[in-house]
Amino acid sequence: MRAMHTAATGMMAQELNVQVISNNIANLRTTGYKRQQAHFQDLLYQTMRRSGAATSDQGTMVPAGVEIGSGVKTVSTARVMTQGNVTQTEKDYDLAIRGEGMFRIRMPDGRTGYARDGGFNLDAQGQLVTKEGYLVEPGITIPQNATKVTISPLGLVQYVPPGNNPQPTDVGQIQLARFVNKAGLESIGDNLFVETAASGPAIEGNPGSEGFGNLQQGFLEEANVNAVTEISSLIAAQRAYEMNSKVVTAADQMLSATTQMFRG
Questions:
Q1: Other CB atoms closer than 10 Å to residue 31's CB: what's the count?
Q2: Element (H or E) spanning 117, and its range?
Q3: C-alpha to C-alpha distance for 128 and 141, rounded to whole angstroms
Q4: How far is CA 231 from CA 31, 236, 241, 248, in A?
Q5: In this structure, are 115 and 191 located in the same domain?
Q6: CA 143 to chain centre
Q7: Which residue numbers delimit the Flagellar basal-body/hook protein C-terminal domain (predicted)?
Q8: pLDDT band at residue 98 using 50, 70 and 90 as cut-offs
Q9: 102 and 18 inside one domain
Q10: Same domain? 107 vs 143
Q11: 162: helix, coil or strand?
Q12: Is there a single domain that holds both residue 65 and residue 192?
């Protein structure tokens, strides 16, 4: 029966929906994580009787036709790129972005990745890197004799050299990137995204400039996942899956009854 196939598409859609929700919940404490939402569309319809079809020579017509749907399909698992809560860590190289923008990260293959995770450290050469050791662009190196490092809301990096009454010295400028369509970015893991044809090219600029947010030193952005919302969505997806499975069972019982009738 056609209903079994239709219900099966609903079960597959809700199975994927649960996978998306479970990934959101798993990343509840992932710095800078942006939650996903599954979006669905109905499949093609078979028209048994077309609306507006003539029913007589006097011009009468069908007010509503007969269309049989064939189920549902998943069209996207779009990222919700809203701001997450910002929490204090008191670490000099932890940075949170308040507003638009993403950090530019140089990956080992030479490509540029983009991240909201600002949990940075220094490598053996004093370069500012991610937790995976990827260089933060543009490259910023902190001298080994630096006694204090400050990063302004506008991204200016300064250090204080040793000595009596030393003056802060500029060492670099952190830059951000933003996109026309942030939801079009491709996730590659390690809290990184790469641009795609859908996202458009990166628009680069300094923190605090037009269209870009400010930086907060000693803070990190939390995931924008709401546990209550995700649990509610999980329950709804589970109920939808169960209802589709009942349709499969009912259709199977009806098919069995029809088969027995012909055998009898």
A1: 21
A2: none
A3: 6
A4: 20, 9, 15, 26
A5: yes
A6: 37
A7: 216-261
A8: very high
A9: no
A10: yes
A11: coil
A12: no
